[in-house]
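re the bet — no i am not wrong, look at it urself. input seq straight from the record:
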Amino acid sequence: MKDFHNLRKWEKSYKLSLSGYGATEDFPRDELYGITNQTRRASSSISASIAEGCGKDDDADLRRSLLIAMGSSSELENYFLIAKDLGYLKHERYEELEKELLDCGRCSMLSFTS
């Protein structure tokens, strides 16, 4: 078992989840159970999956959890794009979120050395 609190990938993904929640604050009220909910769930799922994997004794379980985190990252990227195209996110805010998503290590989640 690893302590997820000390992992940069978890820390970055946790900050991304806070950004994901913040980004949805101004979404239309009628989207509360639509893209708002989905964006929030996907953004919080990344850090939660990393934390869950760290709580397992088996490296195979950790790897599966990291694959789930990668999938949630792709899902979140999709929701950010939809929100931008629907006009819920300004282009500049979308770019900030995309950068944060990339900094989170979306593509290299399985290189779990940091």
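see?? The mean pLDDT is 90. told u. also The two ends are 15 Å apart (CA to CA). so pay up
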